[in-house]
Description:
single chain, alpha/beta, Rossmann fold, Guanylate Kinase phosphate binding domain, five-stranded parallel β-sheet, four-stranded mixed β-sheet, 45% helix, globular, binds guanosine-5'-monophosphate
Amino acid sequence: MNMSDQGILVVVSGFSGAGKGTLIKAMVEKYHNYALSISATTRKPREGEEEGREYFFVTRDHFETMIKEEQLIEYAQYVNNYYGTPRQYVFQQMADGKDVILEIEIQGALKIKERFPDALLLFVMPPSADELKRRLVGRGTETMEVIDQRLHRAAEEAAGMTSYDYILINDKVDSCVEAMHQLIQAQHRKVSSNLDFIEQMKSELRAI
Ligand code: 5GP
């Protein structure tokens, strides 16, 4: 037996506009042991988004059926829409030894930590609040009203950040990607993630 070859769950949260999508995309392109979970949502697709690539876009009814049938490992409401993580893909990828990245908001992150204590929770921050607003406005995908709701939500989410394991400041994409990758690699080496291996070593030592 080796150190655990089962993949781990990596939750990446961050204020809307902090750039977590860009970071994750860059990390998954650079390193190949990561699988990105695709969520289901009731939000309407943005221009350029594709069904099954950014999200599975579903109706409220469909989403509520997924909840009832326990097809989601977590879900939450965010600014008037549902978002949730489909179970099957995540479990399959972890069994295949891939680390699965969940780009989800804070309520979902906390549910994941409760159900999967070995999950790694990362929080991506912009260099400053002004920079966050500048990025949200610059993205041009939301109305001013939605931007205000999202900034308001960011202020609420800041309160929950202390439940996360690490924060990453998204100043330069390259160095932030490196930091994220290193933290995930370190999580694999945690004692608590390798109890089976440790038990095996103990019994082998006793047998000598
Ligand atoms: P957006 O509408 O900008 O794509 O996403 C809004 C928020 O929902 C983001 O913070 C995003 O990380 C979060 N989100 C996306 N998918 C999920 C999910 O499956 N579960 C939860 N809890 N949040 C999600």
